[in-house]
Amino acid sequence: MDGDREFDIVLFGCTGFVGGLTADYLSRRAPGSCRIALAGRDRAKLDDIAGRLKVDVGTDVGVVVADVTDPGALASLAARTVVLVTTVGPYTEYGLEVVRACVDAGTDYLDLAGEPLFVRDSIAKYHGPATRSGSRIVHSSGFDSVPSDLSVKILSEFARESGDGGLTDTTLVVRGIRGGFSGGTAASGLAHGRAMASSRGARAAARDPYTLSHCRTAEPELGPQPDGRIVPLAAVAPDLRGWAGGFFMGFHNTRIVRRSNTLTDWSYGRRFSYSEVMACPGGPASIVPSAVMAAGIRSMYSSVRLLGAVPESMTDAVMPRRGSGPGAASRSKGYFDFQTYATTSSGARYRTDFAMDGDPGYAATAVILGESALAMACDRDRLGQSGVVTPAVAMGDVLPQRLRAAGARINITRLD
After folding, report:
1. What does the DSSP assignment read for 307-369?
2. Interatomic CA distance for residues 240 and 173, integer angstroms
3. What share of the chain is helix, strand, coil (3-state, %, to 5)?
4. Within 10 Å of residue 329's Cβ, how many Cβ atoms?
5. How far apart are CA 295 and CA 61, in angstroms?
6. What is the DSSP letter of 142?
7. What DSSP state is assigned to residue 215?
8. Which helix (H) or strand (E) segment is 109 a member of?
9. pLDDT in tens, 10-27
10. How far is CA 285 from the centre of its chain?
């Protein structure tokens, strides 16, 4: 904890769907010494949430009024806290000013961004300044992309400690997933799609497997590492059957994982290649849905150009309302089950399992983001380097233990 700041954690955006779930989680899990505040532009709503938390949990939380479009208010907000957590999206529209305020104040930052072009802009503008100010800017600290990022870090460290060398071919397989869809998720995806539609250069940047690298020319040339893969699962691991197609969030998760490798001087390996696929049920017949998924992801980079011709009023009319999301019963039935397979430079084979109960984008994300915030505020002596970094680089030495204590099932197995 930092006695020079008024708060240890400020949650910005708690009146939204995921923000509200995260506020509830933090109020239940934070130690009594952790000073938490809720921030947003509507004091009445903030007071209502703070009062409900006081009644339900017995936790006192502060209230700070700030508008994401007011640079002065953001600067004041960032200067008052050790860690600023924001769920105010789409980040493509509202994220960079919050990042700038945190960098200027030397404040640590967390978000749920699944928008590669936003993260790329953040790196280009603020990685150097954040390194100098001591601020850790950590994007994608929820279901996107903590399970992917931590799975590979854990696997890499275990393999090297076992004397098996660096990682080469590495594939995350989504073995099972069930979850809902919210208005905020829809708005985020649409904003990123419009950013890609804006120019051929934006689409090329989004397609580049190393688009989040701050030293692109130093990256290994391992081919395109396509997001829209279709693979027989037996090629990933001999005991698997059926087919898999590219995972719909792989276009973002893979780039976060590759950035973790870059930020740690390619500690995973100079021949480390990474992809994510989603297993389909049905045995040999699963080739059909796998091919459809793969084709859909491959076509994303070209078909997204059509968004530029669609008026925003039309897309807004058909998209879910912001602030909406699945109900409690639906969230409780959700889950995800990831298995990450890797071969090392010595030929050894490993698998990391990462699974959680609860809707991945909402119930599980509230846990992941909440524990990330607590790690950044309460375990500061074990945090990683400053700059625009990744969850694995910033919190990789403490977050796995926190998530296990919160119910995540994270294990590693040597397969041979």
Report:
1. GGGS-HHHHHHHSPPTT----HHHHHT-EEEEEEEEEETTS-EEEEEEEEES-IIIIIHHHHH
2. 10
3. 50, 20, 30
4. 7
5. 48
6. B
7. S
8. strand 108-111
9. 999 998 889 999 999 999
10. 32
DSSP letter (8 states) at residue 390? -
Residue given tokens 């780039």 in the structure block: 255
Structure confidence at residue 26 (pLDDT):
96
Residue owning tokens 């397989």: 173
CB 135 within 8 Å of CB 386: yes
Which residue blocks in 30-145 are alpha helix, DSSP H? 43-57, 71-79, 91-105, 116-133
pLDDT digits (tens, 9 = 90+) for 277-314: 999 988 889 999 999 988 888 877 777 666 666 666 55
The CATH label, of 3.30.70.3270, 3.30.300.330, 3.40.50.720, 1.20.140.10, for the domain at 7-142+362-413 is 3.40.50.720
Any bridge partners for residue 411, and if so which? 353
Return the ∠ at Cα 120 (arms to 115 and 122), rounded to 5°. 100
Give the pLDDT band of residue 101 (cuts 50, 70, 90): very high
Residues 6+ apart with CB under 8 A from 347: none
pLDDT, one tens digit per residue, over 205-253 is 888 999 999 999 999 999 888 898 899 999 999 999 999 999 989 999 9
What distance in Å separates the CA atoms of residue 248 and residue 159, rounded to the nearest whole number? 28
* Angle value at C-alpha 44, between 42 and 49, nearest 5 degrees: 100
Residue with tokens 């898999």: 244
Domain extents for the chain?
7-142+362-413, 146-361
